[in-house]
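User: tokens in, sequence out, please.
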């Protein structure tokens, strides 16, 4: 009986779709999109990617997550979708925004697939930090500016102790914060409390690499005034450090179109 089950069990491909620009996906992902029976998509995947490259008969399910949003799909439900469709013999593509290795809950999904005995493949993508920094003309590391970069989340579930904040405040590394734009003033206040230089440059990049990209530059001490009443669209990325000063000189990408390429949340049951 177990051999029969193994013969009909499908496969899951977990892939990063990049930060938003359709042309930034990999050749391998394009091939897997054309092969997939079922595509389970994050909210922060440009829907044009599936429109262009998925099979017309593929089942596309949106399983969005968004901070502060009650419509977010539970990770346990996503795991069940992956396992259930694969056990029905389907080729399943799990499509995530950015890269699968950065803040994507990939571990939960891998554990579920492993426990169910389902084979999988992982395809990397361009993470939001790389896409945002490139399209904003802000190198994440640069001689004379920063020798290293750190990637950090800052949302209601992120808790860091005093020593960690002191270490970040005293570091010359470029600090890239995911999920931080909603509480930017609080982030700046923490850095100032732990003696980060007040005039340290800060950039907020909205919808990076898309035609809706917007780049806002300020300093830690000026955030409160510069961004008073501003509601940044999702996704937005925050870059803190001296490298942000390079934006004015090397900003090459012209965008600013109103709207968004990303879907609204829909709960899948």
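Assistant: Sequence out:
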């Amino acid at each position: 009986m177990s051999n029969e089950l193994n013969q009909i069990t499908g496969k899951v491909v977990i892939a990063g779709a990049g930060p938003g620009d359709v042309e930034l996906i990999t050749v391998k992902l394009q091939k897997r999109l054309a092969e997939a029976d079922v595509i389970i998509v994050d909210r922060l995947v440009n829907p044009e990617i599936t429109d262009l490259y998925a099979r017309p008969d593929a089942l596309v399910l949106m399983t969005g997550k968004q901070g502060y949003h009650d419509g977010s799909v539970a990770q346990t439900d996503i795991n069940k979708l992956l396992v259930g469709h694969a056990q029905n013999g389907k080729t399943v593509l799990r499509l995530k925004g950015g890269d699968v290795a950065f803040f994507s809950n990939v571990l939960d999904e891998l554990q579920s697939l492993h426990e169910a005995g389902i084979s999988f493949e992982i395809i990397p993508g361009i993470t939001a930090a790389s896409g945002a920094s490139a399209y904003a003309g802000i190198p994440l590391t640069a001689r004379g500016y920063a020798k290293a970069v750190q990637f950090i989340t800052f949302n209601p579930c992120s808790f860091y102790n005093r020593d960690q904040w002191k270490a970040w405040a005293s570091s010359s590394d470029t600090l890239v914060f995911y999920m931080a734009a909603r509480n930017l003033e609080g982030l700046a206040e923490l850095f100032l409390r732990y003696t980060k230089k007040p005039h340290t440059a800060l950039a907020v990049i909205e919808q990076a690499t898309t035609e809706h990209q917007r780049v806002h530059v300020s300093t830690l001490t000026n955030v409160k005034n510069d961004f008073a009443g501003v509601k940044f669209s999702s996704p937005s990325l925050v870059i803190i450090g001296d490298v942000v000063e390079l934006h004015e000189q090397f900003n090459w990408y012209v965008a600013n179109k109103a709207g968004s390429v990303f879907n609204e949340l829909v709960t899948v049951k």
